[in-house]
Design a protein that fits this description.
single chain; alpha/beta; Rossmann fold; 2 domains; seven-stranded mixed beta sheet; four-stranded antiparallel beta sheet; 6 helices; about 25% helix; Class I SAM-dependent DNA methyltransferase; transferase; SAM-dependent_MTases_sf; methyltransferase; Methyltransf_25
Amino acid sequence: MTSSELWTRATAERYDAEEAEMSSAAVLGPTLAFLTELAGDGRALEFAIGTGRVGVPLRERGVPVAGIELSEHMAAVLRRKIGEEELPVVIGDMATTVVPGEFALVYLVYNTITNLLTQEEQVECFRNAARHLRPGGRFVIELGVPPLRFLPPGQVAVPFDVSERHLGFDTFDLVEQVLVSHHFTRDDGDGRYRRGTSRHRYAWPAELDLMARIAGLELERRVADWDGAPFTQDSTKHISVWRKPIRGRATGLST
């Protein structure tokens, strides 16, 4: 078991409704196109597949998909959408759990690698991805760039959403490299606000590249979004692609 916080039944049951915008065609279209191209004629493995926001429509596009998910409650919601034979899911953590077979693509979306709260576990996640990839296969991560430029001296919080139904802000522990996301969400039923928090270990792109080298993977591409926009110093997130070498050992650190 990793240090990841476990999603509860209540959280799993309302997850799709609260993340409806992330399931829109405008968001999912470029994501699915990007992943489908990388998978080619091979299989794809999603770490932390959750309720299947990406995995289910990717399977519907013809890509054979398998998943790893820590929360049985999240996997149960996914299972209402698609059967085990069509999209198998193994319950376990993404740093150590092994799924049979080789894959052309392993991917992690929507900042999910930050659920692993230590650097060691994040390194093991890269190693686990490399373990599952066939030679020439790719590991893809979608991750926000830590917004520390918005954190002046003496300030401890950065807002990321201020809307009618939701107020969200992050607080940072710069020593431990951990952020806590705070959410105040208004329930449609009685209009009251529900508070929730979650912990995450943020990581910079350069740190992820070193993790990839430790796992024997090589950076192939980094863009600012699923549509392929260039990654710059002003980008708020990145899509990074690392490749498992086809022949010989990768350059860099050994495992």
